[in-house]
Amino acid sequence: MKARYKFLLWTAILFVALLAIAAVLGVAFGTGLPPQDQEVLLRVLASRAPLLAFAAVILLFVCAGAVKWLFVEYVTAIHALAEQTGVVLGANDTLRVATEGAREVAAAAAAVNRLAEAHRELKHNVELRMREAGAKLEEERNRLAALMSELSEGVLVCNSEGRVLLYNERARALFAAGTASAGTLVGLGRSVFSLIDRGQIAHALEKLERLRRPGEAPPNTRFVTATAADRLLKVRAAPFLDSGGAMAGIVLTLEDVTGLLDQEASRRALLQALAAGVRAPVANIRAAAENLGAFPAMGTERRAVFVSIVAEESRGLSRKLNEALREYADALKANLSLEDIRAVDLLGVARQRIESALGVAVELGSIDEELWIRADSFALVQALAFLAGRLHEDYAVRRLQFSARAVGRHAELDLGWDGAIVASDALSLWEIEPMQIGDEQTPLALRDVLERHGGEVWYHTAGPGGQRSARFRFLLPAGEAATAPARAAAGPAASRPEFYDFDLFRVSDASLALQERKLAALAYTVFDTETTGLEPSAGDEIISIGAVRIVNGRILRNEVFEQLVDPCRALSRDSVRVHGIEAEALAGQPTIERVLPAFHRFCEDTVLVAHNAAFDMRFLELKEPASGVRFAQPVLDTLLLSAAVHPAHVDHFLESIAERLGVRVIGRHTALGDALLTGEIFLKLVPLLAERGIVTLGQALQASRQTYFARIQY
Amino acid sequence: MTKKVLIVDDEQNIVTALEYLLGQSGYQVEVAQNGEEALAVVDSFAPDLVLLDVMMPRVNGYEVCRRLRERPEWRHVKIVMLSAKGREVEVSKGISLGADLYVVKPFSNTELVAQIDALLAGA
User: Fold this and answer.
1) Is any Cβ of chain A less than 8 angstroms from the Cβ of B46?
2) Per the CB < 8 Å rule, is B14 touching A284?
3) How many CB pairs under 8 A join A and B?
4) Which residue out of B7, B12, B16 would a mutagenesis test of the A interface target, given it has the greatest number of A Cβ atoms within 10 Å?
5) Are residue A145 and residue A202 in the same domain, yes or no?
6) Residue B82 contacts A, CB cutoff 8 Å
7) Whose C-alpha in A174, A373, A601, B121 is 20 to 30 A from the C-alpha of A292?
8) How would residue A328 be classed by pLDDT, with cut points 50, 70 and 90?
């Protein structure tokens, strides 16, 4: 009820009540009188009627005044208090309520203000803490992303359904290596089973489940798998447990062992070739020689036969040995404990070790910066320290000098000193004794270390330029400069690589039919094509396909498909003006029959999105017989969705929509550029669709069908 | 009676040496250059012992051994396999296919003769 009516009502009630009391008192007073007095009284009252009426009016004003005062002091004040409190709570926490009205009301208002102040402070604190936590989270995310990209092993984490929710650049490179396809198949939300055989993963899961013991560290298991490009990966699988201890996913670390296995295989082949290839000729020589020895009385002719057998077989044997050694030289040298290290780094470590363990000063002389050594660096540093120790103890050498240079396929490494002449047989004795450095004893001798490296050491006395200087010279196999692992190409926005999405651990509505799933939670492939013209049925062809994935409302700029296509026909000058792709760029590119299957794999398990999708889909449909792939998944069209959101606008060109939705337009008219733009527009459209009650895929498809533009057919 | 030994090997040098060695050791020796020839010669020559090389083109030593052991009339023939393949698995294979002895190349002439003597003395 409005305040004015309330005021009138209360005034009326009070007025009527007072009149009623006066009337009742008058009646009670009058009924007690004798009849003649009553008559007199009535007469008097009748004659004073105007006065009574005036008194009643006065009373009415008094009543109105009293009610007004009560209203202002209590009712209106409390009403205002309630309203202002609502504003403070809901909209503006810096507003303070007015302390008006009666004393009691003013006190209540003051109390509300104190409460508001406390509330604001609390809210401010919470916001501050949330911001801090957010920043920390962001920092940790960045750190995680950086860490993952630095790992030399591939890492894949997938949820219990086998959907990838984290991967690193290395994992992608391992699966992409050697495949001709333009798109990568490692991607967030993608099925791990398209990368690794389902049976192998299932077996690993089974094994992990069986190996699990409550209260013990989670187990892990290994297997070797082949990629589509025939690389061999050693996979280590470990369970990812949720807080309740149930398996929420699986962590896979991947190592490329193709090379290692090749080395292993060639080493084995060498051994077999040596064993089998050498045994037979040796047997022949031995049999002939033993005959010669056992039967001295044999005739000259027969003797000549056996001698020639021995000579012939020996020659064959030498040839075989040389062949085997030459052919497998690399396999012989390859040793898993040897790694390539820069000579400067190795000698730096050795110097530190010698100075701290023996107190002998070491100077780094001329060392080739580009020289790498294939070495067991730990053993080699020990060997150098050991020699330094012997020189120091036996010959009181106080200063040493390192130098190193490349000599053909080897590294020449000198440990030099001034003064003392070392006995010529000292080194040969030191070579075979167990190395001791300070208090540290090793079972290895210098000779073992040299043999492990396929290296040699000698006492070298002639210095450069003829002056006499003493040094131990090591000849060791040279190594190869280590190449840094490939970095992720920065996306167009140079953003942090999106290699993980832990929201994928929640797979709440995956069981729902596709049509009923929420638009915001689906995985999409947004794509665009460039073509030779606008009439697919008249022989126009696709010349470029670009696509990008959207998972959990994020554009994954690292997961793109970009491929030029040889249209096998001439390009019209008009079309070149649109897409800027010259015929030369298309020569030698794969044809559409080869590109579409790869694109089909890239789109697997996603909803397709394109601007004016009917056009692109028509091209894909026409190629179905030739490519053998059918794009049967649902298709959303940003043109139709835009029309559903803004029916009043007639203009639904990509640029116009972008402008309307505040999306920056860059890199138009390349297939990938347009796909990215379409993706951004699509993400802006999703919340706008939700405002119109279009939340699920089914609803979006329905809305598209109803749109006017849906009637246009290509 | 002079015992008869059939040497089966495709390598002339070892054949020459073995032929002389066993001839000097008092055996009557016949030579087959490959597996098929060996299986053909066994009937006419009726050896007491076959000295069988493993690595031969087409029909290899294992196969010859298996086929010899299939025929009841040849079961008594002693088989000594000679091979440059010396891994344990290969030796086991030869023995389980029915060889009496598996000798890995290279071998000692005197030992080989002693082993052949022993095998045939027991026959």
Assistant:
1) no
2) yes
3) 74
4) B16
5) no
6) yes
7) B121
8) low
What is the average per-residue pLDDT within A398-409?
A: 89
Check CB contact under 8 Å for B108 and A290. Answer: yes
3-state secondary structure chain B: CCCEEEEECCCHHHHHHHHHHHHHCCCEEEEECCHHHHHHHHHHHCCCEEEEECCCCCCCHHHHHHHHHHCHHHCCCEEEEEECCCCHHHHHHHHHCCCCEEEECCCCHHHHHHHHHHHHHHC
- β-strand pairing of A434-437 with A524-531: unpaired
Spatial distance between the Cα atoms of A419 and A432, rounded to a whole number of angstroms: 25
Distance CA A694, CA A692 (A): 6
**What domain count does chain A have?**
5
Lowest mean pLDDT, pick from A79-88, A233-242, A263-272, A463-472 = A463-472
If asked whether residues A543 and A402 sit together in one domain, one would say: no
Task: Name the pLDDT band for A126 (thresholds 50, 70, 90).
Answer: very high
The alpha-carbon gap from B21 to the nearest alpha carbon of chain A, in Å, equals: 6
Active-site residue, selected from the candidate residues A119, A124, A649, A669: A669
Do A155 and A145 share a domain, yes or no? no
Contacts of residue A366, Cβ cutoff 8 Å, sequence gap at least 6: A403, A404, A405
Mean pLDDT computed over A421-438:
80
Give the structural domain span for A462.
339-477
CATH code, A251:
3.30.450.20
Domains in chain B with CATH codes: 4-122 (3.40.50.2300)
- Say if A306 falls within a structural domain: yes
**Considering A256, A272, A304, which residue would you say is the last residue of a domain?**
A256
Cβ contact A290–B110 (<8 Å): yes
CB nearest A279 (choices: B16, B21, B105): B105
DSSP string over A90-153: HT-TT------SSHHHHHHHHHHHHHHHHHHHHHHHHHHHHHHHHHHHHHHHHHHHHHHHH-SS
A669 is catalytic: yes
- Among A48-52, A179-183, A372-376, A659-663, the range of highest mean pLDDT: A48-52
Indicate if A416 and A549 belong to the same structural domain: no
Q: Under an 8 A CB cutoff, do A294 and B14 touch? A: no
A278 vs B contacts (CB less than 8 Å)? 84
One domain, residues A619 and A676: yes
Q: Which of B17, B59, B97 is nearest to A288 (CA)?
A: B17
- A71 assigned to some structural domain: yes
Q: Does A689 score more than 80 pLDDT?
A: yes
In a domain, A491, yes or no: no
A640–chain B Cβ distance below 8 A for any pair: no
At A401, which CATH number? 3.30.565.10
Cβ-Cβ contacts under 8 Å, A309 against chain B? 13, 16-17
CB contact under 8 A, A280 and B14: yes
**A306 and B CB contact within 8 Å:** yes
Mark yes or no for CB contact B13/A313 under 8 Å: yes
A222 and A76 in a common domain: no
Pairwise CB contact (< 8 Å): A312 & B13: yes
Please list, in sequence order, all residues whose beta carbon lies within 8 angstroms of the beta carbon of residue A244, skipping any fewer than 6 positions away.
none
Residue to mutate among A286, A295, A312, with most B CBs inside 10 A, is: A286
Cβ of residue B86 closer than 8 Å to a chain A Cβ: yes
The top-scoring range by mean pLDDT among A208-212, A648-652, A654-658 is: A654-658
Inter-axis angle of helices A697-706 and A638-645, nearest 10:
80
Q: Which residues of A touch B107 (CB under 8 A)?
A: 283, 286-287
Same domain, A607 and A675: yes
Contact B7, B15 (CB under 8 A): yes
A287 inside 8 A of chain B by CB: yes
State pLDDT tens for residues B60-91. Answer: 888 899 888 888 888 889 999 998 877 777 78
